[in-house]
Design goal:
alpha+beta; guanyl-nucleotide exchange factor activity; guanine-nucleotide releasing factor; PH-domain like; eight-stranded mixed beta sheet
């Protein structure tokens, strides 16, 4: 008897559709091997291979007879009721996931069950017989029946819609999907039901994420606050080198570096200004208070507010700064000898600029802290920090203005007695021209002057040098007009541009007048408004001095 395994055939082959059977037709010499990818069954080692030698004629006739007999048996097997032929399954997972759509009626559920049965049958055919046993139809029917009953129950719950959950696993990982059938028969994907336990965990995760975000913001704010304290400590050390190094050595009578005669008699004090007072306040009070703010950040705003009066020491220091620079430049060799003896890296000029740099940097540090405070939602700390930032904007501006005033030379009198500096900047001026004398104005070329408007006087100065990254110009006094003996007239129009005239009404200086032109319309309006305001204040003060009762009645009437 001929063994069918010798030719790659097996009794299971009769269950395959016809298109899967590749038998030889018209070739009686040999049978080609059956493809493994279709039935996934290993053939016998006795299968004929193309490179083997041709068998004797007797064996070829026996093989041909066996093939004819096998084909006849296959034709008889096709008469048995079998599932309709299907296309070869390329992806088992995609075929099974097609069952995830939930039926909207019992008929759809039955159709889905048939599809499941076919898919499982083909899956069993696709895998090797050695790796998987034949599918148990009883188990499949029981599984489908249970799902159909669940669908019927959901359809009859009176809600008008049904939700099918986990009918068939969507993939090989055992995960399930769910759909919702609406009244129209359409299905939409629905999220799986979430248990109260899961909802609580999800809410807790969201709260945890939010808390982590706030903690991250607060960590950044603490970092900015530590930077403020760290740089303050380094700044105090720099001031210590000036006070305990340079100043102590200059005042040391037994110093090996003799002080020049030109610096004796207290002139060395003009080099350092009030830097000793600044150093002592930062060392004994401000630094220690900032260190406490590391534990209590909400106290930072109130600390800056309490320190506003002390911070105005920088205005005095900056006012003396131009004089200090001039003296240091004249005695550079002496101060370099002191630097070498003290073993300092920076020269004295670079160290004396430290207070100016520090007062300018406070605003940037506070701005960073305020940003993180707003992001963290600490609204109760915001007003104090904003007020602190305002202080750190006003004080540096005043200090910078006073440095420009300190560069004013040859002014007869004390600058400190001129009152508050209201405004200063360059203007293009024509001297000796009045608003009625247009010929005089047109005959002269406007000259750029630096004008300082104080509460008591307005000072005109010539500009010497140009402002660069490392140097600033000096100002040489030219003239001044007393504010309480001055008139203002706006001459701006389409023809004249941004002009205004300032004339002295002092009998001793009646010929003194200037026609000034601002670089931009905005600056023109700023100068006009500031001068108008100070003139009004001066007139009110004069009225109060001459007739206080009448002035008081006028105020009462206006109110």
């Amino acid at each position: 008897m001929i063994d069918l395994d010798d030719y790659g055939a097996s009794p299971q082959k009769k269950w395959l559709p016809t298109q899967f059977r590749k038998l030889s037709h018209g070739k009686s010499d040999k049978l080609p091997p059956v493809e493994k990818s279709l039935i996934n069954k290993k053939g016998s080692d006795k299968k004929v291979k193309p490179n083997q030698q041709e068998k004797p004629p007797e064996e070829q006739e026996s093989a041909t007879a066996a093939a004819v007999q096998l084909e006849a048996e296959d034709e008889e097997a096709t008469a048995i009721e079998l599932p309709p032929p299907m296309k070869p399954i390329q992806d088992t997972a995609s075929a099974l996931s097609g069952a995830n759509a939930a039926p909207s009626s019992s008929e759809d559920a039955t159709g889905t069950a048939n599809k499941i049965t076919k898919a499982l049958s083909l899956k069993s055919l696709e895998e090797p017989s050695s790796a998987q046993a034949p599918a148990d139809l009883t188990e499949i029917e029981q599984f489908v029946k249970q799902k159909v009953e669940n669908l019927k129950y959901l359809e009859n719950d009176g809600s008008g819609s049904a939700m099918a959950m986990g009918l068939v696993g969507g993939g090989g990982d055992g995960s399930s999907s769910s759909t919702m059938a609406l009244n129209g028969g359409h299905t939409i994907a629905a999220k799986p039901a979430i248990s109260p336990q899961f909802s609580e965990n999800e809410a807790a995760d969201e709260n945890l994420t939010e808390e982590q975000g706030i903690e991250d913001i607060l960590r950044k704010r603490n970092y900015a606050l530590r930077e403020l304290v760290t740089t303050e400590d380094a700044y105090v050390n720099d001031l210590s080198q000036i006070v305990n190094g340079y100043i102590a050595e200059i005042r040391n009578p037994s110093s090996t570096v003799p002080i020049p005669d030109d610096l004796k008699g207290g002139k060395e004090r003009m080099v350092f200004g009030n830097i000793e007072a600044i150093y002592e306040w930062h060392r004994d009070h401000f630094l220690k208070s900032l260190q406490k703010c590391l534990q209590n950040p909400y106290e930072l705003g109130s600390l800056i507010k309490r320190s506003e009066r002390k911070l105005h020491m920088y205005v005095v220091y900056c006012q003396n700064k131009p004089v200090s620079e001039h003296i240091v430049q004249e005695h550079m060799s002496y101060f370099d000898e002191l630097r070498l003896k003290l073993k300092y890296k920076l020269c004295l000029g670079d160290m004396l600029i430290k207070p100016v740099q520090r007062i300018m940097k406070y605003e940037l540090l506070l701005k960073d802290i305020l940003k993180h405070t707003l992001r963290a939602g600490l609204t109760e700390e915001v007003p104090g920090l904003k007020e602190a930032m305002h202080i750190m904007q006003v004080v540096p501006k005043a200090a910078n203005d006073m440095m420009d005033v300190g560069r004013l030379q040859k002014f007869e009198g004390k600058i400190t007695t001129q009152g508050k500096l209201l405004l200063h900047g360059p203007l293009y001026c024509v001297e000796g021209a009045s608003s009625s004398d247009k010929n005089s104005y047109n005959s002269q070329k406007p000259k750029e002057l630096h004008v300082f408007l104080f509460e008591q006087n307005i000072i005109f100065a010539e500009i010497v040098g140009k402002k660069t990254q490392f140097t600033s110009p000096n100002y040489i006094y030219k003239a001044h007009i007393q504010v309480n003996k001055m008139t203002l007239q706006d001459l701006s129009d389409q023809t004249n541009g941004n002009r205004f005239s300032l004339c002295s009404i002092d009998p001793q200086r009646s010929s003194l007048s200037y026609i000034c032109t601002a670089p931009t319309p905005e600056l023109h309006n700023e100068w006009l408004n500031t001068i108008h305001e100070i003139l009004k204040t001066q007139n009110d003060f004069l009225k109060a001095l001459v007739s206080p009762i009448a002035y008081q009645k006028e105020l009462t009437k206006d109110s």
